[in-house]
Amino acid sequence: MTKSSRTRQLDATDLARVAVVAAIVAVLGLPGGFSLFGGVPITAQTLGVMLAGALLGPWLGALSMAVLLALVATGLPLLAGGRGGIGVFVGPSAGYLFGWIAGALVIGLIVHAGGRKPVAWRTFAGVVTGGILLVYAIGIPVQSLVTRLPLAETALTSLVFVPGDLAKAVIATAVVTTLVRAYPRAFRRTWAAAKPAVASAPAPDRDGAPVA
């Protein structure tokens, strides 16, 4: 495969998919959320982050989260509970928000590793690694810094999020594996797009020269 065939450029369809997934994450915040220790709300939007990386792949998934957070920064109330504005990026949940971008990237890298078709075990591993472990790894230290609580205490209180996030990981895995079977075009420019890239070379004639 040549360098040019590996280089993919964003087109209108890619941008539309990025916008749709960003909108889905925003919609998942409409039911709102409720805050526990430290003021970090429990919402359904992390399910959208998991789906972003798993459906769009690493780069488009991360881009969709970056677009969503850019809109939030302009003041649009797209986070759970109608939150928006630059202030959310200096609050207790700021690290978790930035973790969405990195999380979607890692999810996509794992789920679509080597350009392979998503399978259930790799999808679940990806959404847990990127959508839970990595997001927590970024979010907890920032939350501890903002709330001025000890890191260990902040990590301990954050365990309350784990059961819900594991349930979201199961849901995301079920959605992805269902789409792989029922609508593989949802994975455009990931494994489904990689298949045509391996185009067969022209068959040689009897003298060894390629047939035009």
Could you explain how this protein is built, in words?
There is one protein chain. The chain is mainly alpha-helical. The chain has a single domain (14-191), classed as Arp2/3 complex 21 kDa subunit ARPC3. Helices cover 61% and strands 2% of the residues. It contains 9 helices and 2 strands, in the order ααββααααααα. It has a two-stranded antiparallel ribbon with strand order 1-2. A hairpin with a 5-residue loop joins strand 1 and strand 2 (41-42). Residues 1-7 and 196-200 have low confidence and may be disordered.
Secondary structure: number of strands: 2
What name is given to the CATH topology? Arp2/3 complex 21 kDa subunit ARPC3
How many helices? 9
Distance between the termini: 20 Å
* Average pLDDT for all residues: 85
Summed up, the domain count is 1
Rg for CA atoms: 20 Å
SS-derived structural category = mainly alpha
Low-pLDDT runs: 1-7, 196-200
Spell out the blueprint of helices and strands.
Layout: H1 3-6, H2 12-28, E1 34-35, E2 41-42, H3 45-56, H4 58-73, H5 94-111, H6 120-147, H7 151-157, H8 162-182, H9 191-197
Antiparallel strand pairs: 1-2
Structural descriptors:
disordered N terminus, mainly alpha, 9 helices, 2% strand, two-stranded antiparallel ribbon, 61% helix, single chain, 212 residues, Arp2/3 complex 21 kDa subunit ARPC3
Task: Summarize the entry for a quick read.
The protein has 212 residues and is mostly helical. The protein is built from nine helices and two strands; from the N terminus they run ααββααααααα.
